[in-house]
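Q: Protein A?
A:
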Amino acid sequence: MVPLTQLVLKVHSRCDLACDHCYVYEHADTSWRGRPRVIGQRVLERAAQRLGEHARAHRLPAVHVALHGGEPLLAGPAVLRRAAELLRAELPADCALDLRIHTNGVRLDRAFCELFAELGIKVGLSLDGDRAANDRHRRFADGRSSHPAVLRAAALLNTDEFRPIFAGLLCTIDVRNDPVAVLDALLALDPPRIDFLLPHATWDTPPLRPAELGPTPYGDWLLTAHQHWLARGRPVPVRSFDSVHRTLRGQSGLTESLGLEPVDLVVIETDGSFEQADSLKTAYDGAPATGFDLFTNSLDEVARHPGMMARQQGLAGLSAQCRACPVVRSCGGGLYAHRWRTGSGFDNPSVFCGDLMRLITTIRDRVAPAVPLAAQQHGGLTGAQLDQLARGHGDGATVRALAAEQLDLTRRLLAAVGRGAGQAWELLTELDAAAPAAVDAVLAHPYVRAWAVRRLRGGEPGDDLGGLAEIAAAAGLRAGRPVEVTVPVRGGAVQLPTLGRVLVGGAGPAVLRGGPDGFTVRAAGGGEQRIAFDQAGGERWLPVRRVELPGGWTLALEDTDPQRDSHEYPVEQRLTAAALGDWTGALREAWELIQRDLPDYAPGLAAGLSTLTPLRPGPGGRDLSSVARQAFGAVGIARPATAPTLALLLVHEFQHVKLGAVLDFRDLFDPSDRRLFEAPWRPDPRPLEGLLQGTYAHLAVCAYWDSRVRAYDGVAGEPAEQAREQAARWRADTERAVGTLLASGSLTALGERFVHGVGAGLAGGTGTGAESGPAAAVAPLPVPAAPLAPVEA
């Protein structure tokens, strides 16, 4: 059973528009006629109780609730306020509530917006484009246009006061409308996001298909809009397009209509009955009914209903034709309701099958080519682990879970690069089947992902597919396989990620042959070199050198890989023996200090930081440190004068590494918010992500100075006073930044939970102990967390 995390709560069962494409009133199901117009107090109370008990039973980190209808604003402000208050009161304190309302907008006024801003309710609007497009369907019963009223609602939501509650625009496609004009009209309203929906239809009642528009008019319409969206620089997220891009990369979709993720949504009608998704109303009368109600049945019982279970089976729940389709993992069979046909039920492809095939394959071939390299499946972070990270720490298991997600991401990126790469790609896929641990060891190298991202972004001079041969060769050598690979010579050397660098001189490719004890390299026009695995470094073999630290932590000092030049500052060249000795001593002293004074940070650091890249000294001896966003597990540092400073730089930079990994899979804020915010520690204002990164990193800075204050407890003198001043300064600055983030209005529900955790960590939360006791049973967070799609319910 999949726990239910998305709830559509019908607060009114009638509407003030008469849209002729509405799935509630204009399709097969007529159950709305016998239901109360407005949800009652007793139903509200019981709905909140049922959701609260379900969240506690499954330890849900977040739930998503959409107040819906009909037209939910017809319920009035008192009902909407009561619904929000009851839901929040019944949910456990550690479960975030993402509360939204979806409206046609004609009644939205300042009073409603003030209410929603007070209660933290995000507002989505339905709009089908410009006036001509919108008025094809969205009219009042007397024929009047709803367009001017919706424009007024959008303008109100776009004011500085109410922009934080603007969730976006929903547009139902009519292929008779010009897709470019529709997209431009929606973009002109500066929404935070847009979603395009296919009109609801089945094989019994197929969608409009004008003969002059060809066999796939909906796919062609979406492709035209997609091309225009790309040409305009992707000005706002478009959920339907983003879902296709994500599923082609092997990630989850953002909508019920695409991808194979289990559907975890249930509807509560105004009379308290449980129903499946509203879209099923288009199939046949009574199609969404479960026979359950919230006074008699729990959400666990609803989740086990055969109709709900049928929509949670992924690939196994699809028709044979869908299972054999090459794009099934992106399409997911389409929306469940669109598969209905009398006689075969839902055991059919979508009635939009051809359109979805056209859309997905065109985007795949033009925009996002990828050949899958099987990703290892990991459960992702639990809610307790995310809370650990939010407080600034993260134990070994938590950071290893982050690293597992990052390895999966690197595999997918490498698959996108590897298409058509010939021998190297074939060898890598063979090794992945025969010796996956060796492949993982190379792919976990931080600068493998940095190389892959550079390639996918168009590459740089010398940044060719030879990097794939280097990766395959290194994996083959690690596996002890008798490999033979043609590898590039760059700067007179052959590079083997995670192993080292062989100086061969000259140019042109080299042939590498490996065996159980070592390998040989023969360069064009040069002699053959033999390297034994147990051979120490010399003039021509420059192995990666590693520092063994107490407690089993091994840290690579990476000074050979050309891809390490991914940091903000210039990297150091090959370390001399003396410099290596200085680094080794400084690291051991810094690690001892971290274990003693920053014990909450030590386990995660040892689990996730695999590579330190020495940087060149800063001007005038200034301390320099950096992380590369696409190089999980690495930090760059210019060796500072003292071990305590090195300890501070290590924990500070690794905060950026951890948060970057969290953000790769979880939406903590609205990426379309382009405002700049004051950062107390910088003279220049920062974008929202920059402020979040700085705030999170300064948790470690605060912890460091707090430890120095404790060390000087009861001691007078300048060093003690300096420590107290620094501790007070960084704590005050970080507290201000937490307040700015929470007041931004652009954090998601999960983001608000995370930033509140940052505040708790700043106030002294430990974040430890999540690997024992009940917290360990928290259900895994979605990876990535998909937003609620109430408009499709």
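Q: Protein B?
A:
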Amino acid sequence: MTTIVVLEQARASFAQCSWRDAFQRFATADAAAPLDPDDLEKLALAAYLSGLDAESTRAWTRAHHEAVRRNDRLRAVRNAVLIGGGLLFRGESAPAMGWFARGERVLEGCGDCAERGWLLTWNAYVQMWGGDLENAQAAFAEGVTVGRRFDDTDLLAMSRQGQGMCLVIQGLVRDGMALLDEVMVGVTSGEVSPMYAGIAYCTVIAGCSEVFDLRRAREWTAALSRWCDSQPDLVPFRGNCLVHRCELLQLEGAWTDAVAAARQACEHLSGPVRWDTLGSAYYQLGELQRLRGEFAEAEESYRKANESGREPEPGLALLRLAQGRIDVATSVLQRALNEPQEPSARSRILPAYIETMLASGDVLSARTGADELGQIAESIDVLYLRAVAASAQGAVQLAEGDARSALRTLRVAAAAWRELTAPYETARVRVLIGQACGALGDPETSALELDAARRLFEQLGAKPDLERLEVLTRRPYGEAPGGLTAREAEVLRLLASGKTNRAIARELGLSEKTIARHVSNIFTKIGVSSRAAATAYGYENNLI
């Protein structure tokens, strides 16, 4: 077969988005005789989209040097930009900035051109991620102007995407999402080339997840899945797509499919090029394993997430809570909550913090956390956060003894979770609704709610929740095991949170002598001799 025939076949495969076949044929032709710049650039892109990053960089580097040798400076800059853009998307910012600097040097003395807009736009992304939103916005606006002037649809898409992300980061979510939607219209209609289309998909979906816009995240993730499926050889964006799919499948209750997606994402993102989203893939896998009661496997996944650069909280802390290690979970979450400052970041930690504070008997801290979460939900104003905040608020109200208010709040939360098609969260709220109804003297409705929750947990395979529910339903609400009175159970919860007798007396408005008597009675009834053993008993019997 002649080199000319092989090249024709390579170009046909490239046009059909058969990236691996195109790469192999271009590489075969290149081994026979060096490719011309057009075909060399196609070889580089086919290698990149096949996940062959080393081969891709070598080919683009050759194309860059060949363009410099021919004094085709604009082509040389375009290749430098492609190399730098690919590196930056993978999180390798230092070598990316090196290629952008080289592009700027090559461009010295050239007049107005689209390549200048590209360098401006990529540097604006670095400014945006570094927190310099004002200069980034100005640069993105200039990138849009240059893209229009030179009719560069890729540059227009990347610049508008940057504008939209800046607005979202500043809290102008509605305006920012409108711009991102506009970018995605161009992507889904085929106006944007494959490399930049993939970057746009992943960036926009990540932006939707950041502001908890689940409707958009679902729609664009479905579109990304179709786009990836239409290109079986595509590698770079498939792992990111699987991470997003896993998050949504978990929420929708398709846990078996979510685990499969998480495992595939870990495989795609771990080699031969390690992507910066690998930690998120391991974290999602850990979350699913924790919810299914696979605690040893979950711990290993959280460890790998941490090794890959993803903070394992709040998932690892919730694992410790499920293991009964309340003190560890408490200290970890208190530390984690003191670190993030952005409301969206805090809103990811607060639900676990509230749950842990309630488990430890520290209702006051749980109330503080629930109030802050409610304020964040009111500020961001999306259905998902409103559901999270209402669930936490209802749980705290129930712990405070205000079952009537708790029931109203929990009904709102349940309706929101049903609207979001989130069966696990719905089941957890129904457990709380059942407890509230029991506290209000309605055992029949309580039993109905708890049975409905049990069926959902069984369908999902949520073993730890089923075990906790089994303990809960062995006794009516308000009736403690071991013959403890309601007051003794309350004292046990406060004791378990680490409070001294004096602190418990002050909180309950009783004398220290009375609390000492209660503690003595508790120890006698449940057959323990230390506060640590009493704490363990309380947790094992669902009193804490």
